[in-house]
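Backbones bend. We report:
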Amino acid sequence: MKVKDYLPEKHIQTDETVADWRSAVKLASQPLLDEALITSEYIEAMIQSVEENGPYMVLADYLALMHARPGEGVLEQSMSLLVTKQPIDLEGKPVRIFLVLAAADSESHLESLKEIMAIFMDEEKYNVILNGDREQICQLFQ
């Protein structure tokens, strides 16, 4: 599988700003919910995980890898992405990139995650994502 199979264009959204991090998680997850790849239970589990454990999902400046326990409300392994122009406070950490990972089990997503994180770890590509131009972001993941 290619990165575009894990993160298709229809799962990538950009927005100026969102009210708060919970709204951002819901918005970022919406394409997966619309396609019945996850249930609302998974979205609630991600939010609850941050409420209980703090902002551990923030991996780098402005980047949060949102997830919950594998299988919990995940109908099919999938990913979605929301990039906002304005930083959103996630329990004290500013976030503009919400990458939602819906893992069906504890292993099958590792390869896709590695490929996608390689894009985020490339400074030039990371800056393209932070610029928030949806078309350019979609091209990165093709």
User: Anything to note?
Assistant: The longest strand covers residues 78-90. The domain at 3-140 is CATH 3.40.930.10 (Mannitol-specific EII; Chain A). The beta strands are 12-15, 58-60, 62-66, 78-90, 93-102.
